[in-house]
Amino acid sequence: FYYECSTEECDFRLHVQCATISEPLVHGSHIHPLFLTSKPGDQRPCCVCEDSKCTYNETFNCIECDFALCFGCATIPQRVRYKHDKHMLILSYGKEISST
Question: Which stretches make up the DC1 domain (predicted)?
């Protein structure tokens, strides 16, 4: 499901899920706030999963640099419980953590 502009010549669409996230999106994967900015027809790959099929209005974009985050990556749970571990697991953004 998505919302779309009612003007015939406008191709703007917004997924219902994206509309539920308040802006700016402050995400642990990036130092700047992210916004659902859009330019019809533009496409930006997600900087996390590198999905290049995202249209510009399907990504949360940084207005200070070239960072983009797709909805799927933006909504990955920050903490999960795994059935084979008694501790909560915390999402890591690529930094290796030493266990010693």
Answer: 29-74
